[in-house]
Amino acid sequence: MAANAPVVVTKTLGQPTPKTRLCRGSYWFEENTGAQGARSFDAGNRKTWSWSGWLKPNPEYVYEPAFFGSRASSNNRTNLYFRLDRCLQVFWKAGSGGSDWGAINTREQFRDPTAWYHVLIVWDTKWGKDSDDRVIIYVNGTRQTIWTEGAGMPSQNMESQFGESGQTVYIGGDSGSSYYHGYLTNMIFLDGIDALPGDFGFFDPD
Fold it and tell me: Which end of the chain is more exposed for a tag (fewer CB within 10 A), N or C?
C-alpha cells in the first residue's frame, strides 16, 4: 500500500446472518478464519494517521477481535479492537518492558446488534500535540470519552506500526490469533493526515 493512498474495502465475502442487514459492498469476516486482507506499506508517516470505516460487529463473538492491525513481533504492534465488553480499543506495544504498552478504550459500549457504526480513529503524536489528543476515537461523528490502561496514551513522537516500510497490515486481524467477526465497509486509511469526521461525510440521525 503506497503512502498517502487510501485503502477501500469493497468486496463481499461469505454470507450475512439472518440477524444482520447487509450494506452493499461490505465485507463479512469470520473470527475463526483469520485476517482476510493484508497489505504492505511503503515508508509512511508513523506518527500521524487516520483510520475510518463502517463496522457492524457480530454480537455473538467470543474473542476480542482486531479489525485492523500490524505486528512486527509480540513486542511491537498496533491494533484496533472491539473488546469483549463491546468497547472500542486502540492498543499499542513498543518494547518488552511491562510499561511499554498502552490501551485507549471508549467508555461507551456498542451493543446494538442491528447498528452500523462509523468509526474514526486518529493517531497523532507529533511535537506540540496535547497528550489527551494523541489518540482520538469518534463514533458516528461524536468524540468518545476514553479510559486508558498500561501507559495509556502514546508518548510524544511515538511511532506506530502502521507506516513502517515493508510492514504488513492486516484487515480483519493482526496476524496473531485475534480476528474480527462481522461486517466492514468503506475502510479508508489516511497516511500523515489528522482527519475529522466531516472529512468522510456526515451522520444523519434520521
Answer: C
Cβ within 8 Å of residue 58, ≥6 positions away? 17, 20, 31, 181, 182
Helix (H, G, I), strand (E, B) or coil at 90: strand
Cell of 126: 507529533
| pLDDT one digit per residue (tens) for the chain, 206 residues | 333 333 333 333 333 333 334 455 667 776 666 555 667 777 889 999 999 999 998 887 766 778 999 888 888 899 999 998 999 999 999 877 666 999 999 999 999 988 999 999 999 999 888 999 999 999 999 999 999 999 999 999 999 999 888 888 888 887 766 678 888 999 999 999 999 999 987 766 66
Task: State how beta strands 101-106 and 182-191 pair.
Answer: unpaired
Relative to beta strand 101-106, strand 146-150 is: antiparallel
β-sheet bridge partners, residue 105: 89, 147
What does the chain come to in residues? Answer: 206
Q: How far is CA 181 from CA 14, 49, 57, 82, in A?
A: 12, 24, 6, 10
Q: Which amino acid is at 111?
A: R
Q: pTM higher than 0.85, yes or no?
A: no
Query: Residue 91 belongs to what H/E stretch?
Result: strand 88-94
Helices then strands, each counted (H, E), the chain: 0, 13
Cross-strand pairs, 121: 51, 137
